[in-house]
Fold:
Amino acid sequence: MLEIRKLHARAGGNEILKGVDLAVGTGEVHAIMGPNGSGKSTLAGVLAGRGDYEVTEGSVTYQGLDLLGLDPEERAREGLFLAFQYPVEIPGVNNAYFLKAALNALRKHRGEPELDTMDFMALVRDRMKVLDIDPSLLNRPVNEGFSGGEKKRNEIFQMAVLEPKLAILDETDSGLDIDALKIVAHGVNSLRRPDRSIIVVTHYQRLLNYIVPDFVHVLSDGRIVRSGGKELALELEERGYGWIEDGEPVGGRA
Amino acid sequence: MTSNASAAASSVSHFEASYAAAAVQRASEPAWLRGVRARAASAFSRLGFPTTRDEDWRFTNIVPIAEGRFVPAEGGEAAAAEDCDRYLLPGLQGPVIVLVDGRFAPALSRLDGMPAGVEAGTLLEGDRAHRLQRHLTAHAPFDQRSFTSLNTALFPDAAIVEIAPGTIVEEPIQLLFLSSGREGTASFPRALVLAGEASQVRLVESYGSVGDGRAFTNAVTELVAGPGAVVELYRLQRESARAYHIGLTQIQVGRSANVSSHNAALGGLIARHDAVVVLADEGAESALNGVYLADGQALVDNHTEVDHAMPHGTSHELYKGILGGRARAVFNGRIRVRPDAQKTDAKQTNKTLLLSNEAQINTKPQLEIFANDVKCTHGATVGQISSDALFYLRARGIGLAEARRMLVRAFAGEVIGRMKLEPVRDLLDRLIAERLPDGAEEESLA
Ligand SMILES: Nc1ncnc2c1ncn2[C@@H]1O[C@H](COP(=O)(O)OP(=O)(O)O)[C@@H](O)[C@H]1O
Ligand SMILES: [Mg+2]
Structure:
């Protein structure tokens, strides 16, 4: 599904990613953990095509495509989805209108007929229930005036509607109370499928109690310094990131 | 005398010649109007064209107009029904008055089936000129404003709408001012709207071009809202990209009357519009909304002036601009609160979206407050499309061009949403989506 090799990226004149190697197979759930500032969002942003970063070295292959050569919208149309750590407020753009435009852009790319408003609303109502989303959210401008929890749920709701092949969730858990966390985790779990891969980026182990990963990686100072199974997350929770940062780096995949 | 000054002087005398040539037409006009025109002509001779040394024209150089040697258009068979269809709002059944180069085009107009209490037509039809003395030319100050004096001296006819007291007009009334767009011609559209006490009416004034020659439009509209009248006036300026357009909308708002003036400036190489609202009596209320769109080398200038003359007046104003290419815009919002105008509530906002690095805006509030118990706020912002928002949309699969279009429409939507007439909202949304300024497609801000 995804193969990242020796990825180096700069932002604002600083090297943030310093040689990331990671391979994600079809249907796998990977967790990327790491201290604040270690480059987790940078990695997610580089994968989604955010313009703030300059890739200086390395390659990313996604479903046989040179991912870094694609525009952000092309990546999305190929089935890549980023749930933003900080979803963007877009005043004046209606949430339903936006999501319908996005879905139809994807469908068009896949050679499927565009959905009309009725079919779209039917699909959306169905997905909203799973995430316990207030239907009025659809008629509000994208993320504007949403609470932190509403924004995160809206991201997963979008994921449920757009049905990506590879979803990257950037700290979708942060700022959520335990009830909201459970709803979001339930939403993500309901989207787990053998042909869909998920990368869960998180600072805390807590989310991984609900979304159980196949693999856990620790990102520190722009490198993956340790990889393991789900027990690695528990170990991190107990011993803190200091333990990793002081330890011997271990690259690559578990 | 500098060469510039002498060129300006010769262009003034050029229009003086036009005035002399129109003497035949004036001969049939009532004496009061002939007198007004003579005073307007001499005011124009005295004032000349404004230059960038005039504070009100500092950023708007109209030398191409002053030295353009424009000849008043003859009118005639310059427009057809298809030309009207390009500019009239679809789906409206109400009266339509079409003036081509400032002259009435009866075949293109729709004046049958006039609703009760509505008088609509033109100055030269019937004997309107005799009974309009109190209002026609009485409000737009032709002794102070150069272009207003020029229009007042030269307008060949005028669209006149009179709403009888207490009349509620259901269907919006459309005034269409077409410029033939013939190379080197000038036209002087004129309109007067009188909304009687407690009447309600919506009017749509559209300005369009038939051809796309270098043509000059100098328009003046006077609107008088009687006590308790509720009026919505939409002004949609959509002339060609080579047109020069100078316009004044002069609005008198009576006691407890409510006037909304909505102004879209979408066309012209140089387009200047002054919206002047006089809250002439107690409890008068006004909304001023504007949207302007310019690209290429165009210059769009909006000057607004709200004159709070009496207590308990309200004025809320929002102008939003979208600029691409090397376009320039000027916004100047004057709010005057006279000593008597206690309890005034005035609010003014100007926001501009720059779609290219070469586009520019000069924005300036001008508050002149002479009363102490008032609420006056103003604010201006200038920004670009948010790269975060653009990335967010693209990350969901929406292409760059469409994402930009969505964000621009959303920006304009804030002010378009304040316009109550749905066909106007639909039209403006469509025109803006269709005509995103130069460079919007290729220049990536992501
Ligand atoms: N656009 C940017 N410009 C400059 N520095 C950035 C930018 N984005 C991130 N950084 C820096 O890169 C480092 C990693 O940030 P980030 O990827 O957000 O970390 P994490 O998500 O792991 O907390 C931080 O030091 C941050 O300040
Ligand atoms: Mg982060």
About this structure: The mean pLDDT of chain B is 93.
